[in-house]
Amino acid sequence: MTKKFLLYSAPFFFLFAALSLFEPWLYRNVFSSTSIDRLGGKEFQIIAHKGASGLAPENTMAAFGKALELGVDQIELDVRHTLDEEIVVFHDQTLDRIAKDTLGNRITGDIHDYTLAEVKQFDVGSHFDSKFADQRIPTLKEALDSINGRCKVLIEIKHMDHPHYHDFAEKLVEIVMAEENGEDWIILQSYEPKYLDEVHDLDSLIQTKALIIGEDSAPLVAFYIETRMHMGRAKEGNRMRAINPDWETLSPRRVFQMHAQGFEVHAYPVNTRDDMIKMLNAGVDGIITDFPDVAIDLRTELSNLE
């Protein structure tokens, strides 16, 4: 009886597993709607990814200025260390993708192999457009001073197994606390729980968010394991108010589960109007995007439907 049951039920278990794995894909490509009929008046957070990085070079003062000009709710940026252990705003471990010298030659190597004085000479804007050739890598303090609480700032702590990063969390906390009311408008996020734990050990008032890996870059159960690990850690200390998953790992059911645990859900990076509508119909609370202008226009459109 048992063997027969297992034999006959096995296809259903495999089907269930397959549906669970491909649930977000099925939602995006089969069941989701790009209609805004049910979204009239919906409020959602607009978070500029690396600043307005679809409109200006990523993680530069130009991108942050454009995001502020548009009136976003939050600006997301990334931080790394230089050789002399200064915290700068930069996404990649290496400089290869976007940095050039004054002659237009590509700069190569890890950013933590250069001093602050050296990286300040690099052009990180002309790869986007020649009119941004004056853009340089800002320090975190320079970026925060320029934003100055005009919107919230979401700082992503990049993971690095390097000696320079031994006191990274401590330095971040010092910079946040040096800003006027910094604990109110600056939020730290990371894929690495240890950074968030260290931050809360140093200052329990600083807000944090968890980044969750996507199924396209991890084994089948990774999304579920990571979700439950971060949620469990958050509930233990009541420390995380929101979770920021890759938008391609989300479906209405998964968003509902996160809401049921008491978290807001901010999806990233969502860059087209149709995809933003799909995520809003799935129930997310915020959109992290390279094109905040598109999200601003959409929110205005929804407010006019009330």
Task: Describe the fold and architecture.
With 306 residues, the protein is of the alpha/beta class. The protein has one domain: Alpha-Beta Barrel (TIM Barrel). The chain has 11 helices and 9 strands. It has an 8-stranded parallel beta barrel, surrounded by 8 helices. Helix 5 crosses helix 7. It is globular and about 60 Å long. About 7% of the residues have low confidence.
Q: How would you sum up the major sheet?
A: 8 strands, parallel, barrel
Class by helix and strand content? alpha/beta
State the order of secondary-structure elements, H for helix, E for strand: HEHEEHHEHHEHEHEHEHEH
CATH-level-2 architecture: Alpha-Beta Barrel
Total helical elements: 11
pLDDT < 50 runs, ≥5 residues: 214-226, 232-238
CATH class: Alpha Beta
How many structurally independent domains?
1
The number of distinct β-strands equals 9
Strand order of the largest sheet: 1-2-4-5-6-7-8-9
- Computed Rg: 21 Å
CATH fold category name: TIM Barrel
Helix content: 40-55%
Strand content: 15-25%
What integer is the average pLDDT? 85
Distance between the termini: 59 Å
Q: Main attributes?
A:
306 residues, alpha/beta, eight-stranded parallel barrel
